[in-house]
Amino acid sequence: MQIRVEDLSMIYNPGLPYETRALDHISVDIKPGEFVAIIGHTGSGKTTLVQQIAGLLEPTSGRVVAVAEDGTETVISEKGKASFAVRRKVGIVFQYPEYQLFEETVLKDVCFGPKNQGLSEEEQIERAKTALKLVGMDADEIGGESPFELSGGQKRRVAIAGVLAMDPEVLILDEPTAGLDPKGHDDILRMIDRIQDDRNITIILVSHNMDDVAEYADTVLVMNKGSLFMQGDPRYVYCERGRELKSVGLDLPAGPGFLEDLQDLGLDVDIEKLTFDETAEEIIRVVKKKWQ
């Protein structure tokens, strides 16, 4: 399923003294199976944009359109059976989703979404077991436990499994690693990447971590004051237009940021290096050249 955002604007409290334009004429296409990261400062419009894509908010103007394989177009925010069916194909995981766990067992919690979809108990359990497996958990081992007795990282996995159990074609994750320790952080990101490979679903990740975005994203959307400031693949955004990104107060990933610092010191370095390995090779090249 393709997601097409067309001239989308969102104004909170229109006509009032504290009117806020959260989105300002945003247009972007998200291809099926793409891993898209959305970055920007707090208040830049990231969360409002993904809530529009999920159909949780009605836009002030413009629209979000889901395009099926056969070319059928459905406006996500409209009322009616067609748009409702499309919205069920878009799963969203908010920040700290473990706070939304409420059932007495892990299995029951993951079954909640499929149950609301009207599936039989047998189908609910099958969906839940499959989803738990996708997030690296064994339903036979953990399904009967209380979700409230799990570690923070485990709770996060269960919450994500609850969304996956509804079999979405698009999975939106708003800061999914917030509050986790470094190991939990890395585990969740690797899990999300693996899920995309296994399911070939579209991932939309809201993140402040530039290194994560550089490593996993196919496309980066840069939000600034409600506008789409920049978009492109990570190498284009961070390497070719890194200085523009810094001009709006956003950091670069460790590698490109360090190379730009070296260039500012007068060293002849190629700043269009994205990964840690590329950065290390460039530093070695510069050092060898300097000492020859």
What does this structure look like?
- This protein has 292 residues and is α/β, with parallel strands linked by helices.
- It folds into two domains: 2-248, 3-Layer(aba) Sandwich (Rossmann fold), CATH 3.40.50.300; 253-292, no CATH class.
- The protein is 42% helix and 22% strand.
- It is built from twelve helices and ten strands.
- The protein has helices spanning 46-53, 81-87, 106-116, 121-134, 139-142, 152-164, 182-199, 210-216, 234-240, 242-247, 254-264, 276-291; strands at 2-12, 20-30, 35-39, 61-67, 73-75, 90-93, 170-174, 202-206, 219-224, 227-232.
- It is globular and about 70 Å long.
- The mean pLDDT is 92.
Secondary structure elements and pairings:
Elements: E1 2-12, E2 20-30, E3 35-39, H1 46-53, E4 61-67, E5 73-75, H2 81-87, E6 90-93, H3 106-116, H4 121-134, H5 139-142, H6 152-164, E7 170-174, H7 182-199, E8 202-206, H8 210-216, E9 219-224, E10 227-232, H9 234-240, H10 242-247, H11 254-264, H12 276-291
Parallel strand pairs: 3-8, 3-9, 6-7, 7-8
Antiparallel strand pairs: 1-2, 1-4, 4-5, 9-10
Helix pairs in contact: 3-4, 3-6, 4-6, 6-7, 11-12
Largest sheet: 6 strands, mixed
Just name the CATH architecture of the largest domain. Answer: 3-Layer(aba) Sandwich
CATH topology of the largest domain: Rossmann fold
Q: Give me the CATH superfamily of the largest domain.
A: P-loop containing nucleotide triphosphate hydrolases
The rough form would be described as globular
Number of helices: 12
Distance, first to last CA: 55 Å
Uncertain stretches of 5 or more adjacent residues:
none
